[in-house]
Amino acid sequence: MSTSIGIGAVVSRSLQVRAKGGETSPRSLAFLAALWFCLLFALLFLVVLIVTTLIEGAPRLDARLFTEYPASNPERAGARPAIIGSLWVIGTTTLMAIPLGIAAAIHLEEFADKKSRINRVVELNVQNLAAIPSIVYGMLTLAVLGILGITNKNMVWVGALALAMLILPVIIIATREALRAVPAEIRQGSLALGASPLQTVLRNTLPAAVPGIATGAILALSRALGEAAPLLLLGGLVYLTFDPNGLASGYTVMPIQIFNWTGRPQEGFHVLAAATSILLLALLLAMNALAIFIRNRYQQRW
Amino acid sequence: MTTLLGTRSPAAPSPTSLHGRPRPLDAAVRLVFRIAAVLTILITAGIVVALLVPSLQFFAEVPVWDFLFGTRWAPRFADASFGVLPLVTASAWTTAIALAFAVPLGLGAATFLSEYAHPRLRKVLKPVLEVLAGIPTVVYGYFAVQFVQGTVLREWFEWETGSFSVLAAGFVMGVMIIPTIASLSEDAMSAVPNSMRQGSAALGANRMQTSLRVVVPAALSGIVAAIILGVSRAVGETMIVALAAGQQARIVGGPLEAGQTMTAFIANAALGDSRVGSLEYNTLFAVGLLLFLLTLVVNMISIAIVRRFREAY
Prior knowledge:
The structure holds 2 protein chains of 2 kinds. Helices cover 74% and strands 0% of the residues of chain A. By secondary structure, chain A is mainly alpha-helical. Chain B is 73% helix and 1% strand. Chain B contains 13 helices and 2 strands, in the order H-H-H-E-E-H-H-H-H-H-H-H-H-H-H. At the A-B interface, helix 1, helix 2, helix 4, helix 5 and helix 6 of A face helix 1, helix 2, helix 4, helix 5 and helix 6 of B.
């Protein structure tokens, strides 16, 4: 294809510039410096973001953040319902999305006939779902509630449903990759010993893929934990003065609390937004670290 | 690549069947797996129906032409006007600014990781870069409006800009999509076979020349797909633009102006309680449909490019 032409062009051009060549020519060094700059810029941005948020939020990163409810006076306000709400919503999302995602991935990777048209459509569809804007999932859930005639949108399970649909494709893709990495010999060995295809998957392939699945699932859940857009559509922005305590309970979550406080004019609320951001970032970094730890520690290489 | 099904199906029926006894429980469990997979199609179908039905009601009242090419967006005013162009220009500005930062920075980072970095250095740098992708967008939005717009643009640079600008939102969004572009481009560049690099070096090219004239052209399809995916993420991003780009729907003329993007309109309109079936409620879905179609086209192009060229080597 075009590569052969590309190589031809490279040959002729390389011969021309050979005299200038060398890894230490000024142009070459400038190029390397530019590449370093690209990486350092991204890392510097990360550091500035964390440090400025930390400085801004430090005064309110105290016990009151965990014990107080939102209030009109920033000095007396806290994020308690949002923190508890986030735990409820993420817990429910986990229960909805992970079993379903793993089941779908097992079908696609282990049982589906790769040549059949419908399965190719399903595959393409999963890839596309993973790239749909998160707010669209909020609209889908909103429309479903409209059809069902449910007017009270502010319920834990509603928010969790939107987030579960959002992360489902991510979990499916991660699980499929983990299953694909398990060598065929393991399946063949199991089948040769008389296990049925289902026994093979459940007792051999799936256990071998658990570290990869766990890594993918944790990363997907951390995405759901930081997501606010679909929940904005689902009445997640409320003034809550009680702890969320059940699937049908009212809720708000940390990202929405941050959004709400950032939009207020008083400086005190910005401090609260920064403090809650730090808390959320700490949680997410811990989840990321756990995912990387599992990947490095338990993932087998065949 | 052999699936279980592939290894199981016998080439010809033999007297001793290799299928074993029928297992109804197995069949039932496998049916559950199959249903889970088909559910993903239901989600897509649900999205299409959910967006289409209210949109059709909307277009029964507002002509499509007025919606797509009208230049005044004022759905809540007494003399309501539904020209979506102001929202589209704001989305276009933030997306273009985001790409102006993310494409060079992301490709530079990818080239470094793929062509220059020692494997050990790469093992450290990649997860750190991926942390950028894991930061909640609402935290980015807070940072964009408080630090980038409030402190950097207004206090340090002393530029004439209000509380919001598409520049601050676009810049921060650009940094957000650096990991997307860098990671996918790096995958594409790492997949270029080493023999091509060796061939280039044998002809006297140095590393810069090899990277720019051999590896990047060979990985171009993957790189283009990565950039297109970045576009899709930038168009669909909500919280950063809702916080930092502003909430006035008007045609954006420059990077220091504020503007309401399509996603910011949806997020903002949803805060008010609009009755199901009202024109206000349907407006939300008409904009949502436009957003969905835009990202769908962009995603399909990206997936098609990757599929078409993935197994070139």
